[in-house]
Amino acid sequence: MAMNDKAPAKLSGQTMQVVSFALGSEEYGVDIAQVQEINRMVTITHVPRAPHFMEGVINLRGQLIPIIDLRTRFGMPRTEHTKNTRIVVTEIGTKRVGMVVDSVSEVLRIPTEQIEDAPDMIAGVETEYIRGVGKMGDRLIIMLDLGRVISGNEKHDLETLETEAVSA
Amino acid sequence: MSADDFFDRTEFIQYFRDETEELLQSIDSDLLRLEGFVDSGQIDAEIIASLFRGLHTIKGSAGMLDFKDVQGVAHKLENVCDLLRKDRMPLSESCVNLLFEGRDILTALVHAAVDEGVPPEGVQGFIDRLDSFASVYETTAKVIEGNNLPAAAGEHHDEMAPVEQDQIDAFEAEVARLLAAQNSEAPPAPVAEPPPDPQPVASGAVDAAAAQAAIDALLAPAPAAPAPQAAAPVAAPEPAPKPVPAAAPAASAAPAPAKAPAAGGGAKNQTIRVDIERLDMLLNLVGELVINRTRISDIANTLSRNVNDPNHHQDVVVPLAKDLADSSALLARTTNEIQESIMKVRMVPIGQVFDRFPRMVRDLAKARNKEIKLEIAGAETDLDKTIVDEVGEPLMHLVRNNVDHGIEEPDVREARGKPRAGTIKLNAYHEGNQVIIEVQDDGGGIQLDKVRERGIKQGLIGETDRLTDREIIELIFTPGFSTAETITDVSGRGVGMDVVKKNILRLKGVFDVDSVLGEGTKFTMKLPLTLAIIQALLVRVANELYSIPLDAVIESQRIETSDVRTVHGGEVITLRGQVVPLIRVGEFFDLSTERDPDKVMIVIVGLQGRQVGLVVDSFQGEQEIVIKPLSDVIGRIPGISGATILGNGSISLIIDVHSLVASAYANGRVARAEFSGV
Asked: How far is CA B203 from the centre of its chain?
């Protein structure tokens, strides 16, 4: 599945498997094919002067995985980590990135016709990271475009850093 | 491979590229050896056979992939080799030059084919020249044969048929080999083998001398010209005979997969050839691990069965403790050996890089009208693949520099009482944990006064600056230092030399220059064996552990805070009479650190003779660490080169001393830091 598809192909009768998780009062989802595993919170090693939403790196069985704090990424207030806090390790292309979320709810099967293009109506969350909204009864699942979550603004930050490095 | 891609070309092309690169390299060295026989006129049959095999394999593989240009040129070159092998053509300098040129064209064609780039120009011109060249000798041979054997014409045709069959056989063998290598059932694409169409040879009385004259006329273009020139008109005394594409492989040169001893030097080559012995050793060690695993799980089982039984303390638990200690010792030994073995697997001989220099020196020397011998020693010296890939460029600049500026013209050398031919020595050897590579010439040495003059002219140094010889030599490696207005003739000394310095530093190496005027110059570079595992000093900063590569560390010092002074607003200490500026690592990284009111912990690091003190919270000892890159999602961070995982599973970031200091200076962190005196 291409990562920057704005909306998944809508073939009637098909369903999409989605890992859903919570951030504040909102429910988000990512394509299950992009989720490698879900971990409890572990110690995150801070990486100084990294882009601000980069929480740091963790050691996942000998591999270094960069961690994004999704709250910070979406401009939401940070909260204390609880026993429900999870790290969702995703694989986007060849890149592996962990995302800190408030809690992971379940795996949902959402009929593709129930997924709508990203609306402008979701207040408070930057719509550029959203590839659609899935409706399950009266629940709304915000489908994330992970490719944009890990790049986007952060590209700008990196460029700033690189300019600094070059001038150094 | 998906079911749709019945014939997955990309995999074959990848294989073709790796293999061809190797073969082209070995063809190059064969040609260089062949060139050595020109004077004697004798031919070492083994060299020709090896050339032949290389060309033949390239031809076969290219044919399979339908790279017609590559196939065609390889075929023509093969013809020439065949003439040499059958003694129908004398070995001449022009012939070797033609083969060299053909090898370069073949290389360009292979690259164009593999990368789907634009094929090089002048291929047809070259083929025409090659044809004329071969045909002259074909004719000559024909005439001689004709004189000796009345039935020559008939025999010639008889000869053709088996050759054609040979080609087909050889091709089939090649296909089978490639398929086996791919372990794939995909059939090869249909290939149009250039059909040998034996043309009746126009017989004419062409004597050998005339033929040689014709050939020399054909080869008029300078031997070192990179691009083939337009085909010269054939100046044969008789009407030019048709090219005879006969002379294909004979049975003796069955296309056994050529085992070239040295792999290609292409930096893009991401595969590695491993000696099977090294793999076996690794396998043995893994076997020991597996045995040990069983042993440890036995101990664990016995222990858990008896854990609640105090009666068995003496007879069960005590021996178990001893068993466990043994197992643990064994585990430590085995993992150490595995670590060493796997590093060895990554090691490749430096010869892979050295191999490209004989040809380069030959061509450069010809172009500069110099006589140069290249002596190579220690080509079997192993070092890490990544370093071998990176070291090629700086070495090339050094060797070029030696040829351009080191070695004098033959007449000058003679006048100075030196042999006309200069010598460049490439040498590599291990010394402790390092590899030493030396590039030495017996040329004129560096003219310090002229370098100094240029340095002043370019504003790199002041007119009245007093520099040591060493500092003057350093100027050569300064970016922008150019002696285009000539220290010597061709290009300025220093061209590309800043690249040399930069690359060596990046490889965490050091270099040294010794030069004696009139006697020669010697560059010495010392490189680490591997970049993957290093010794590091662990330090604590703002409650995180950081690793500082030990090769940069000079010493660590605990200094009273009252001994820290400020100079121009920046903190410094005085260490054995030397003023050492300080950088507070925590503040550099914008971490919340508190300054100790009594003492400062300082790691003194050395950067090209300059000392800088890095202020940390505490020292945590030395350790061997395995470097892992930070994810590119995070990007490059000045001052951080990667991370490592420590024994307890926690992560320690590795400080890149070079970029940290450079960045701190650039941001004015060193000057801006305020004195926090008590």
From this structure: 50
**In the structure, what pLDDT confidence band is assigned to residue B231 with cuts at 50, 70 and 90?**
very low
Contacts of B137 (CB under 8 A, 6+ apart): B83, B88, B89, B211, B215
Instruction: Please judge whether A164 and B667 are an interchain contact, meaning their C-beta atoms are less than 8 angstroms apart.
Output: yes
Q: Is the C-alpha dihedral spanning B464, B465, B466, B472 positive or negative?
A: negative
* Residue of chain B whose alpha carbon sits nearest to that of A54: B634
Give the tens place of pLDDT for each residue, A29-71: 999 989 999 999 999 999 998 888 889 999 988 888 999 999 9
Query: Residue A82 phi/psi, 5° resolution?
Result: -115, -175
Contact B236, B214 (CB under 8 A): yes
Cα–Cα distance, A32 to A144 (Å, whole number) = 12
Question: CB-based contacts of B549: which residues, under 8 Å, 6+ apart?
Answer: B508, B534, B535, B536, B654, B655, B657
CB–CB contact B650 A59 (8 Å): yes
Per the CB < 8 A criterion, the answer to whether B127 and B72 are in contact is yes
Chain A residues whose CB is inside 8 A of the B631 CB are: 57, 64-66, 95-97
Cβ count near B311 (within 10 Å) = 8
Residue A3 lies in a domain: no
Residue B121 near residue B227, CB atoms below 8 Å = yes
Are A98 and A90 a contacting pair, CB within 8 Å? yes
Looking only at Cα atoms, what is the longest distance across chain A?
Answer: 57
For A144, the domain range is 15-167
To the query of whether residue B79 is one of the catalytic residues in this protein, the response is no
Assign domain B533-672 to its CATH architecture: Beta Barrel (2.40)
Active-site residue B78, yes or no? yes
Contact residues, chain B, for A54 at CB < 8 Å: 633-634
Distance from the Cα of A115 to chain B's closest Cα (Å) equals 29
The DSSP call for residue B651 is E
- Answer yes or no: is A143 within a domain: yes
Mean pLDDT of B330-336: 87
Contacts of B649 in chain A (CB under 8 A): 59
CATH class of the structural domain B351-528: alpha beta
Domain count for chain A, please give it: 1
Choose among A8, A18, A20, A161: nearest CA to A86.
A20
CATH code, residues B9-249 = 1.20.120.160
Strand, coil or helix: what is B330? helix
ipTM, two decimals, is 0.79
- What crossing angle do the helices spanning B9-35 and B45-64 adopt, rounded to 10°? 160
DSSP strand E in B432-519: where? 434-441, 510-516
User: Could you give the angle at the alpha carbon of B227 between the alpha carbons of B225 and B230, nearest 5°?
Assistant: 100
The answer as to whether A70 is a domain residue is yes
Per-residue tokens: B468: 């040591």
What pairing do the DSSP bridges indicate for beta strands B610-616 and B510-516?
unpaired
CA distance B278 to B263: 17
- In this structure, what CATH number is given to the domain that contains residue A138? 2.40.50.180
Record the tokens describing residue B478, joined without a space: 């300064």
- Using a cut of 0.95, tell me whether the model's pTM lies above it: no
Nearest to B260 by CA among B621, B19, B1, B586: B19
Flag whether A8 is in a domain.
no
